[in-house]
Amino acid sequence: MSIEKNPAQRVKPVKTKNPEIAQAALNEAWRVMHFALRAVIAEPDRILAARGLTRMHHRILFFVAHTPGMSVGELQTTLDVTKQALNAPLRQLQMQGLIELAKADHDARVREIRLTVDGVALEAKLTGEQEKLFADAFAKAGEKAHEGWRAVMHELAQHAGMK
Predict the structure, then answer these.
(1) What is the pTM of this model?
(2) From the first residue on, what is the mean pLDDT of each consecutive set of 10 residues in the chain (163 residues)?
(3) Confidence (pLDDT) at 94
């Protein structure tokens, strides 16, 4: 049994005791993931680059948009980065008028990050491009494929601390 080298070919789950076949399926899964990731990030990267921003900026915008009241510390933990690594991108987003830092209502020592109107618009555009690709792929792959993909992604994400 051989696995074709076409990245668009779907890899069926391997149920075999033959480790070479199982390894080939794992290699193909990683190869397909590489090309899929390239497809998902291409347009957002182009949009970000035109503003002098990077994927780190998009990750910040995404998590702040989808986690109301997120503090700088919570963002740091979510992204698994140091304060120093987070400081420059936050400053750049602030300078471009995409985020604002404000004292939390519940604790003046806590700084919350909020998207501005422009930040909301940019995050929606960036993530919207990705959502279109996912929606199209899920529609073509079918409901069971979507459930399987989510299960695999959740298993992998737990290794990065996602709950």
Answers:
(1) 0.82
(2) 48 62 84 95 97 97 95 95 95 98 89 96 97 95 90 90 81
(3) 97
Neighbours of 124 (CB within 10 A): 14
Buried b (16+ CB within 10 A) or exposed e, 19-49: eeeeebbeebeeebeeeeeeebbebbbeebe
